[in-house]
Write a structure and sequence with these properties.
This protein has 255 residues and is of the alpha+beta class. Helices cover 31% and strands 33% of the residues.
């Protein structure tokens, strides 16, 4: 038979246990092991790591949420609190410049580089059977920020090397004057491949941006696809006074 004293002692042990877990997680966040916007291990993984029940782990996580160190988002689970990184839509620019404007250190990692048969959707835009395809991941302060795939006509990409596209953006290296771009923004769920690259759960929300960049002669010279974890970025548009004009950086396209 369990006495009242035994029950009280058991509750105290559980309370201390959740506080110890919360303290350890707090230190791991402070040390940078779990960086800003980083998704934490799942509750079941934390339960196994700390050899504690999910109830105890959940109580520790709730304690850190009360301190506004972490938050819970549908599709992601628990992640370290931080404001999304803003991206302006009023001009054509590189991810590096967008991040630098916010004081963020950026890095690009090329995943693949090569000439390939153009996917049908790309061929219909660039009117080229063979294209240079470059897949890369962009990091923001060391954390995966975007997966980008760029397709370039064979003739324009012929002089580019893997080292070139690792060093700088296509926008800075194409041997043509650029006249602008059309960008379409949408939402999707992270595929298994993108989830692994961006270090988010499979099926979690992502923002997509499909861009067609044109020369000053209005000829398409690049097609690109950008995928961003939804909790790590936001798109910002300046809105003019309602005088019938469209917001700066936006225009209507047929569809």
């Amino acid at each position: 038979m369990t006495s009242r004293g035994d029950n009280t002692s058991s509750r105290q042990v559980r309370q201390i246990r959740y506080q110890l877990i919360a303290s350890d997680l707090r230190e791991r966040v402070a040390s940078g092991e779990f960086a800003a916007r980083r998704v934490l291990p799942s509750e079941s993984e934390l339960s196994a790591h700390y050899d504690a029940s999910r109830v105890t782990v959940r109580r520790a996580l709730e304690a850190l949420r009360a301190e506004r160190l972490i938050e819970s988002r549908q599709g992601f689970g628990w992640l370290v609190t931080a404001d999304p990184l803003p991206q302006a839509l009023d001009h054509l620019g590189t991810l590096e410049n967008q991040l630098a404007a916010s004081g963020i250190r950026s890095e690009r990692r090329v995943l693949s580089f090569g000439f390939v048969p153009a996917p049908q959707a790309v061929r219909s835009v660039l009117n080229d059977r063979t294209v240079l395809e470059v897949r890369r991941v962009h990091l923001a302060d060391g954390e995966p920020f975007a997966r980008v795939t760029v397709w370039c006509p064979e003739a324009l990409g012929a002089e580019l090397s893997r080292a070139d596209v690792e060093r700088a953006s296509f926008l800075e290296q194409l041997p043509v004057r650029l006249g602008g771009a059309t960008q379409t923004i949408g939402a999707a769920a992270a595929s298994p491949e993108d989830a692994e690259l961006l270090e988010v759960p499979v099926g979690s929300p992502v923002l997509t941006a499909e861009r067609i960049t044109r020369s000053v002669d209005d000829v398409p010279v690049l097609v690109s696809e950008h995928v961003f974890p939804a909790h790590r970025t936001r798109f910002a548009v300046e809105l003019p006074v309602d005088d019938g004009a469209l917001p700066q950086g936006l225009r209507l396209v047929g569809g």
